[in-house]
Amino acid sequence: MTVIALSGSDGPDLRALMAETAIELGQMLDRLLPKPVGDEARLFEAMRYASLNGGKRLRPFLVINSAKLFGVAADAALRVAAAIECVHCYSLVHDDLPAMDDDATRRGKPTVHVQFDEATAILAGDALLTLAFEILSSTETHADPQIRCNLVSAMAKAAGARGMVGGQMLDMIAAEAEFDIGGVTRLQRLKTGEMFAVACEAGAILGRGDMARHQALHAYAHDMGLAFQIADDLLDVEGREEEAGKRLGKDDAAGKGTFVAALGTERARAQALMLADQAVRHLEPFDGRADNLRRVAHYVVRRRA
Amino acid sequence: MTVIALSGSDGPDLRALMAETAIELGQMLDRLLPKPVGDEARLFEAMRYASLNGGKRLRPFLVINSAKLFGVAADAALRVAAAIECVHCYSLVHDDLPAMDDDATRRGKPTVHVQFDEATAILAGDALLTLAFEILSSTETHADPQIRCNLVSAMAKAAGARGMVGGQMLDMIAAEAEFDIGGVTRLQRLKTGEMFAVACEAGAILGRGDMARHQALHAYAHDMGLAFQIADDLLDVEGREEEAGKRLGKDDAAGKGTFVAALGTERARAQALMLADQAVRHLEPFDGRADNLRRVAHYVVRRRA
Predict the structure, then answer these.
(1) CA gap B117, B257 in Å, rounded
(2) B249-265 pLDDT, tens per residue?
(3) Which of A89, A213, A233, B61 has the fewest CB atoms found within 10 Å of its own CB?
(4) Nearest by CB to A127, which of B40, B148, B165?
């Protein structure tokens, strides 16, 4: 089943490039995560289970390809990519908890609290979030402490109460709040968009990009993130469970304020395509060097999982 | 009831000083925490409930009084103190959750998940932890990005998988693991000691203290932290619930590996006093300027809550 109409092709290249990034990212995470030894090995195993799990690694791909626009050293970009993925994985672990979305499977495998237990899942999430800041503040990530501080600050803002966690709070109350399209847009910008934005801006921070390029990447990430989220909502309604590897239809069941609920399927689909095109246009200052980011924008509205 | 024999007096000064610090710290936290407005106000209210609650503010007191040893600006120390308290409060919110220690009261009030709900408590904890790193990386905390990075790095290590969260994991498995005195000491060093250590070292980081003073404060914090924890174990066995403002006797009921379980009441009491005296001796390089830290060491083994 085609979830969403094609809007340009992402080509076979993108999938191969994303798969390559996913392998490199997994190797970097493996180096950065604590080895599962000692009395508290259970914690380290849960952190590894939560993060070394074959995700798409979309946010790391954004970090690495935005960093390439500024000629950033590959290892620095990969470390920052790993830090962002730690934050993303922590958020999934906590979101899956019984008190939150109560999901038993993710990417076709038992969620962390099912595989381990709830206490271990809470702690593994806490530890992954904390590890992200340890990575970003390390001299191994960048020699310039001003750049490291800027990364920490941008990540903390994107991930915190006025960013991702705030968005998750809105998501929890969406069933009663009955958000209109403005409310849904804000919810999704906080819940998903801010982390996409910091992934793209990390390249500009690492590469000391000027304000204009910074803003271009921010605008790209903003539109791409919304397109991603609308595609997610459409997948939830139309996708097949075996492709997504997780329980579907739950948003509708919980009466949550999604783009599809606010706009209907057809308008949501058109909106996603429009946003993907708009995202691509923000990349003009980078010419052909931003082709991977362009492909990502098309990919996020075409994916099936 | 006297929980522990006196070992020197902390004097009336200390209580007054700690109360003064608690007020200043509360005012700083109030400035740094998000105002409870907007659709996600519930999250901000829970963050405030968790942190503006009349705690002892012992870790902030350590930050501020170690910073004074190096002539650090009061506002910088207070901001770092607020960040450490955010981390401490987040850890209490998550520790109190049903899947963890399952506590319904703290400081005589309903715990966050009881007052709000579990999802809000998880998110409020996540947001407080993230806010701590936002505060530390802010230019308002210190003009020198190297110092800000050192603070972020030290805090992330102390709070993470190889620090506080690792200690909490050990605490969760202590019932089955049956730790000996070495195991209990390691558990408590991770769970409590690392955060005490970073509180004391923050002053040296802010004040660009030399290695010798850094190490002296670390050694002080290490011994004081263990004394604090033994006193906590003794309070759990001997204290009165109405004085502590929380359910007591639970460690014993859960068969957890505490100092009292490992050593017995009398030896544990003697050990706490010995550690407090030892902590004080590490402060010799600072002469009379470290009197407040000396008083703290005596206070932690005398407190009744």
Answers:
(1) 30
(2) 555 544 466 888 888 89
(3) A213
(4) B165
